[in-house]
Give the backbone structure.
Amino acid sequence: NAGVTQTPKFRVLKTGQSMTLLCAQDMNHEYMYWYRQDPGMGLRLIHYSVGEGTTAKGEVPDGYNVSRLKKQNFLLGLESAAPSQTSVYFCASTMTGANYEQYFGPGTRLTVT
Amino acid sequence: SQKIEQNSEALNIQEGKTATLTCNYTNYSPAYLQWYRQDPGRGPVFLLLIRENEKEKRKERLKVTFDTTLKQSLFHITASQPADSATYLCALVGGSTLGRLYFGRGTQLTVWP
């Protein structure tokens, strides 16, 4: 099993450009999450999904959109990137009834210039 | 809103000693409290979970305590080794949004020989 994978690993964007981050998991998990991690701020939840076709806002959703068309995939979109979105993005997944132990991907380092 | 504090950003100890990390929280009644380890450039990895009705949990050299009256969890690593050097994150789970975690900012532990 690959666990949780994220694509791409690194990306540099110019202000105003758009991009999509892909998260995939092969563990048949119901719940998936997108976090951002900034120095001194810890992990902050952007959006999450409790099942295929459903998404919900987390702590810092502004400027991001998500989609969960397939159970194994969770996409994070930036429609118009801003320098404030420079961060490391982590995807995670968990299955219900398992104490919500989260499995994290390796992260995507995004720089917006 | 809920607030989670980890005692310090950095903790330096000598090999063989016991490392003790603290996680305090306010405005929340978690069903579970989890601890994760994060190495540089990688996603967090789950270590231990303790439920609200448990006082203590052990796993090899790791011990976690949970005091819901004090709203505090202590994370101990006994006989610490340089390989234990990493950032340790606590996370709260529960309430009306089961599956959603609230993370502390982490404590960076360095174990020197």
